[in-house]
Fold each of these.
Amino acid sequence: MHAIQYEAPTTIEQAVGILSAHGESARPICGGTDILIQLRAGTRQPDYIVDIKRIPELSRISFDPKTGLRLGASVPCIQIFENQIMRQHYPGLTEAAHLIGSLQIQSRASVGGNLCNGSPAADTTPALIALGAVARLIGPKGERQVKAEDFVVSPGRTVIQPGELMVELLIPAPAAHTSDAYLRFIPRNEMDIAVVGVGASITLDGDKCVAARISLGAVAATPLLAAKASQSLAGKKIDAAKIEKAAELAMEQASPIDDMRGTAEFRKHLVGVLTRRTLERAIERARRN
Amino acid sequence: MAKRTSVETIINDDPCEFLCDPRQSLLEVLRDELHLTGTKEGCLTGDCGACTVLVDGRPVCSCLMLGVEARDHKIETIEGLAKGAELHPLQQKFLENASLQCGICTPGFLMSAKALLERIPRPTEADVRYHLAGNLCRCTGYDKIVKAVLEAARESG
């Protein structure tokens, strides 16, 4: 059996040092809910497992009404939906974190890990894209920031380079009358992988949409920002026809495949339905803010 | 074989030190190294909840956590539930309501239920069903299990 070595650094510098020294053969672990399955299946065979849960900067949630949210990469989902600030300011991301697996999984799995796992169907990634989240990475060559929509490059692959560590996710403070939502379709009530997931964030000025971001999961090789659909709403008075138009544009941008969870045709249809519902939900919340 | 690592932790309120291979899951450590075989292996993918233990009071699938990650954490397993010969109220209610048949899922259900009652001492039926949703039973169905947890909550003071 392939042997591994376990390291549990307590500072970012130590973690980057270990990750840099071992390159592709080192893999960070947060909740472990994906990587332990991959280790058993042999789909990932790292020589070093670097536990990043003991680094304080990665384990905190901090919110400032001006500068926004800093969400540590290893914060488990359960801490997100138990956090009043998260529920109030980022309900869409909170509901996405609440949808991942069972409580047993939510007690361990993190939003940062969900993004780094690079699944096209990750529930929290469309929520992050809708919010305009940016991942802050630190590596041997220094620091860089990558937008959530640019982070996953193909199924299971991300922009993270050997030696790099995701420290936190930076999310802007919501402007007045702004809110977000995330909805997914699964063929059962709970605990399944999204057939389609749609995120939306919207800023209103009365009946007018100031800005919108619509994101799609499980309908392409990576989660994506539905740019045309998002732009179609900006500056417009919101009504049913505008929402319908945005849903149609989102459907055009989806390029799903047929698989065991659904046909491409069904997924396209779902993108339309979910885009409409997610927008309506985000709009209703934004009106209350 | 990797070097075995020494891990200090607390299991069922007792300080504990064990040696393990860094690849071993907490489930494997509990069963194969510490001979605490009450925690069961089910799917090994985090879907069934049979291996549920509490880590710092939170339910966790012990198949999805490395044994080495247990360092400095407080682990609770089914072996810590009864106080000597005295069953925990949840165990007692599971017996009275015949909430088990084959019994493989039972330790996991009991640990999830314990975590629930510590967080919500007076749960609604919806609370119970929600908090036990990560535990699968293929024998009884869930009604008798839910009933047992509700009764245990009602009668615990």
Amino acid sequence: MAMDTSNLEPKGIQGLGKAIKRKEDARFIQGRGNYLDDIKLPGMIYMALVHSPYAHAKILNIDASEALKIPGVKAVITSKDLAAAGLSWIPTLAGDKQMVLADGKVLYQYQEVAAVYAETRQAAADGAAAVQVEYEPLPVVVDPYKATAPDAPVLREDLKGHMTGAHGPRRHDNHIWTWDVGSKDEAEKTLEKSEIRIKQHMVYPRSHPAPLEPCGCIGDMNPATGRLTVYMTTQAPHAIRTVLSLVTKIPENNIRVISPDIGGGFGNKVPVYPGYVCAIVGSIVLGVPVKWIETRTENLTTTGFARDFHMDVELGATKDGKVTALKVYTLADHGAFDAAADPSKYPAGLFSICTGSYDFQKAYAEVEAVYTNKAPGGVAYRCSFRVTEASYLIERSMDVLAHELKMDPAELRLKNFIQPSQFPYPSALGWTYDSGDYEKTLKVALERIGYAELRKEQAEKRAKGELMGIGISTFTEIVGAGPSKDFDILGIKMFDGAEIRVHPSGSAIVRAGTRHQGQGHETTWAQIVSEELGLDVDKIIVEEGDTDTAPYGLGTYASRSTPTAGGAMALGARRIREKAKKIAAHLLEVGESDVEWADKKFVVKGVPGKSVTMNEVAFAAYTNLPPGMEPGLETTYYYDPPNLTFPNGAYICVVDIDKGTGAVKVRRFVAIDDCGTIINPMIVEGQVHGGLTEGFAMAFMQEIAFDEQGNHLSSNFTDYLLPTALETPKWETGYTVTPSPHHPIGAKGVGESPTVGSPAAYVNAVVDALAHLGVRHIDMPITREKVWKVLRQAGVDSF
Amino acid sequence: MEIILNINGQDRKLDVEPRTLLAHAIRDLGLTGTHIGCDSSSCGVCTVLLDHNTPVKSCTMFAVSAEGHTITTVEGLAQGGNLHPIQQAFHDQHGLQCGYCTPGMMLASIALLERNPNPSEEDIRFALSGNLCRCTGYQNIVKAVQQAAQVMGKKSEGLGSAADD
């Protein structure tokens, strides 16, 4: 029976600012999504991977004979087989290279050692379990601070003695690069002269995006045509197509990448993983489609981790609380290969946003990256390239300074904000902030949460020995990479494309080079086009994720979709409107200069009754054109943004801490975001809720941990803890709107603000609750065990 | 071995290995709305209903053990061409983003509402605590369950008063 979905579709012209329901929901609520593992191709076989139990070991022998005896197992490949195809190593996005399957040695636990192909998923798994690998364990480097000790074992023997890497000189075989920005000399001199100087060490622990859908791939080489179709859980299908072409030497026109519905990405689905390559190679060699779907353990142990920044900050200020200078040293643990997904020029991403929302005159940041026996990664987990780390660093440091000055942390922030009159604001570390009104946003948050009352309550509780804390984070993000003069990935400039085709009946198909994973592009892109062209949203279909049909683009991550593709969408629509205006003048029988676009239709100036709609113009574009005009009503627009965008917000968290157990309860959380123009308030709100929850997870639960032997201690969801509905706090949201002056619709992007901004608010709240006990900092994740220890050390009674 | 599973009101004949998980068996029948996400029965994206109102993580049950029970998957929720109130509510309240947890989340919600037609927010959060969501932060899912409770309550009230007449 045909389903009645009439209650699902938003209808009519629905432009910017409308909280319409999502167009993409219909398939998902009916179980008709099309995720990677839902795709079945004729003759398809399955692949499973063999993983190393050791974090660092020589491979003495790989024996696949028992695996090949298992019914259904068709082939087993190792690095040697890949070498024959020139694919034993592949380039990473960070200028390094990585093994596809272990070549002579393994460098982290669970590293991929062999691939097994079989007729069924079960046979493939049985085959993988039957491959016998002989290892000789080697000494392990787990602690990044020990990676560059003179006697540290050399991890990357392929790079031994190469003292220059992709990002400059290397000072040790386990050192990858050192990147710095700003004037060290000036920052140090200013710090020396500053009346107040604080120093703090803080760790942003290793985390993992862990989308609920694991990664997967189907390689489908058609032996008859030589055309390779790759179905892949990728946030960046076009970039993947280009990389595949470069790596496999298959001409790019013979590669089609399809990214079907994605069950969450959060940065995990940006890089190229060994499993993808092995599925593709398997299909090329065996001539049948090969499917590989990760297990959860494979996802958590081998695919792109995030964070792992070990930071030392020095901050100077005057006695009355005016910041003077910031100096940061960071040690970045990149694991065994430098596979961070950053724009080429920025090996430490956009970490130099670490001066935050404050008017620092002098600043210097240095980041050193090292190899360790851990999985590669360094992906932008729901953040724009290391912005989460930077934001945490400055927001935590401001609280340490407030503590030192015995000043209220809100007052300290208000004293140091960049003022609205200073925009466009050139930061000490080289960015030009587009817009913001930080004071207003913080004041809205303070008012909303009842800050003064809460401080009173806290004082009363403290007098009674009860523990309550209030934490503030007034962060500034930098997103929307990016302008082609500075931003590229493997040389490909980070613009994005949109294609709009208006059909004769006034409906349209819209395509973009981005790839949503839940962000709602099928609705928001339609809203931008509806706003600009006056078409009904229910007549606009949005398509992403097929490189054969979508215009080129760098994909969806780093909050870049709205700043880049959103801009392309608006400007593409405006270009169509220019042509439409000429057609409208023809239909209205007046000169083009007599026609204006008003109230979502073309009107003859001064004659409000005389107008044509875009629907009428669309029909005329195919049936009744002005003489000599090219038929049709469509365009492809590539948008190269002139600058990045700088979303910001003020978050305030209130916690209560149980003295006996150390349990932290988030009582309230107010998030006031300023992401510029809001396209769909419902979707923005949903993004904020989700990001606050992931921030909560990082602050209190999630950590990818290792023991001294490099054994992975967080390899499944019973050890790597994600928040459920039960522990997740209730969110109170609000907005200030300071449009981006350079973006076509003034939007800045929002998907990552809450993940970037919230961790510091949680930690600041916990430290604030314990500050009178002499506590100045606690590293994430703040488990109840950690708090319990702090309380006992401070001599606090349990009751 | 050959088994018969009653899924969404239909008897389906399958040939499975004894170790085949119910989740895999259901998906192999083309009912791909039941997802798989963790291999350790932690995430709940594979949740189905057994005998109409018992939520079960179908990755934690063998297909052979499900014989003799009725199984409801997301594909069986809409009836007579109309969406189930929980489906409408997830849409109305923006209770989904990537959609991967949604089928399991909706089925777990229905199981709750069958047991407890007027759940408090705390009840809802507790009942859904076996189902993870990475996108929504749960708040809109809670609202969706509250909307569905209201709609389903009204419907059964309507039925009740008709019976009284």
